[in-house]
Amino acid sequence: RDGAAAQAVTALESLPADVRARASIAAMLGLAYCLRYADDDRDPVWLARAEQHAEAALGADDQLAHAWVARAWTLEYRGDAEAAEAAYGTALSLDPNDPFALHGLGRLLRSRNRFEEAEQVVARGLAAHPNDRRFWDDLGTLRYRRADYIAAADAFRHSIALKPDSIYAYANLSAVLLRLGRDDEALSVIQQGLRIRPHSRLYNNLGTTLYARGRYEEAAAAFRAALSDGRGSPNDYLKWANLADALRWLPEREQEARAAYARALALLEPSLHTEQPDATRHGRAALYAARLGRRDEALRFLGQAQSVAGDDADFRFRAVLTSEALGDRESSLEHLEAAIELGYPQHLVESDPDLVLLRRDLRYHLIVSRSGS
Fold this sequence. Notes:
Elements: H1 4-13, H2 17-20, H3 23-41, H4 44-60, H5 65-78, H6 81-94, H7 99-111, H8 115-128, H9 133-145, H10 149-162, H11 167-179, H12 183-196, H13 200-212, H14 216-227, H15 237-247, H16 254-268, H17 279-291, H18 295-309, H19 313-325, H20 329-341, H21 346-351, H22 356-359, H23 362-372
């Protein structure tokens, strides 16, 4: 359940030192610290602790699958995808059904846009652990990334049925419903999640839904809640960027918007220095740099993202926004056609305030008409 990572850390840290030194406990602590890091804190202290305990677990017993999983998770969060994949492989050779290894490997492959391989791993996870909501969330997220929104919604609803008190599936389902143009349902699902407990992902999705409706003041308030110390995640670059998006459309808030974009890019920057680019992170960095007028940076990040993006509709739409911000209409139209062909929802293109001028271009209407024919 949500909040379990913090409880697990507290319980494990309270064990005697000699018990914590055991390989199995050290590995569990490594995983728990990774979960704390990922669960909206994004505090590098948690990741450093995870690395320390993962290495201690391997030093104590390198035949323990969980020790390799702990190492894989830390490597993945550090952005070393190749080393993480190798560590997942070792873990699964020791325990082919380890749920942490299968969940982590599927997540890693999905983040690298290796969707077919991710499908196979998620299928393995569901076969071995059909009642583990994480694999239904993984399946839903994979369907979402591939623009199969009906199937994604079904998977997230199954996750909620298995764990009605898990807010992650509510957040995920609301995002899918927005893509399907079912905004009222999305808002209702967000409120269901908030009745369970406040969470930054829910506030972020609330802001995103309000933004799509043109309610920018309310969207900014929701994004601020997503960033707040008590109930949000102030170290999450995406939420700073979303706040910046909303502030741009409010009177006399341009400087605040620029500061928020700069904060987003600063938080994102350490994860950009990887051997292989990441389509999502580098694509977002390109957009934020473009918003800040850093043309050379934006073009460099965009090229890096495109080199690995493959059939990623979200990347293509983000590239439309980036190209428009850079004044490159030809590239905007090229990315738009690809995004629509890959299943990006047309109603979100039509409602985006940054694309007003693009929508006045005759070529935009030709692209839209071809997609509907």
